[in-house]
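hey so u asked for the seq, here:
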Amino acid sequence: MAEVRSRGLIGLLRHAISTAMNRPDAALPNHFELLATDGTARTGRLTTPHGVVRTPAFMPVGTAGAMKGMHWREVRDAGADIVLGNTYHLMLRPGAERIAALGGLQRFTGWSGPMLTDSGGFQVMSLADLRKVSEHAVTFRSHIDGAKVELSPERSIEVQRFLGSDIAMQMDECVRLPAEHADIERAMQLSLRWAERSKRAFESAPDGYMLFGIVQGGDVPQLRHASAEGLVAIGFHGYAIGGLAVGEPQAVMLAMIDETAPMLPKERPRYLMGVGTPDDILEAVKRGIDMFDCVMPTRNGRHGVAFTRFGQVNLRNARHADDPRPLDEESTWPSTRSYARAYLHHLVKAGETLGAMLLSEINIAYYQSLMQGIRDAIAHGTFDEFYQRTREDWARGDIAPRQGD
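ran it, structure tokens below
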């Protein structure tokens, strides 16, 4: 009887190995190590040519090769392992070939750590005038000088290789929600075909560099399933969920993550593109997402809004004019615990650049502190407690009592 059970186990093991080896991404080097799980939440380590990324990770967005209002050393000191650059903007100015001639994006910018570049597809759809989508490529007029530009999957990968990013993204078409079912399905199918072309174009990349596929499908579960299945069949180093945080309610976004994440390989990194608020991130981590990016920390900082342990604080409000308290006396980030709300309010109202700079770094530091707290909680099996405590702190608002009160 024991021998029969043993044979059965061996058979199952052989079947599992055969299934894994028949999946295209099994033939790709895997640079992601899953270190711990707590429920569906995961923490891991992604090794790139320019360093290690601790996950879950938030990637600050340096769209045109710079972090708005911040020096790269502040981004690093705040705890960021990886940042994001944008293919669309960099190919238009200063040009991918020029950046390559100057040593690649890391040397050009002075950021020595890992970088991810998006494909440029979203910006083409959202910024470019007179765009035309065909099977071959997207043609559009530059928002800078009106020049006619063509961006194909092959050109997108070529640009990203010129930039030298550690992680490149496939070319895709992103549809803003709400949208008609037919439009969502057409874009999803086109993105799958472009995924195949992107992978072929990436085959000559040096070892260690990665290409992620992007799941599309809007708010239609069946299309999300079809896209995920198609991408896994093609095989990528990692998988992103795209086409969310583009106008739909949070409940829809989370439902699409619930539909998609379980279909992606557990041993590969999962990236939720363009997300988002601390609330969005916490909910997505709970659903098994590993990587995030968003312009919100620096954009909101430039508009007078701080992200803190007690939620968002709008420094434009008059009630802060006489408030001597810092944003958070217990923060590990010096600017968060050192500057009075009254002073930050003054800087914002006076339009002083320093106000935007301080709030941008405060926000990036909070996001990175949140990610570190998430990673620690998952590693120690206490993510549910961290989740509840974080939500309770946010619910308290920015009226935390002064020390000694």
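The chain has 16 helices and 16 strands. The first helix runs from residue 2 to 22.
lmk if thats what u needed
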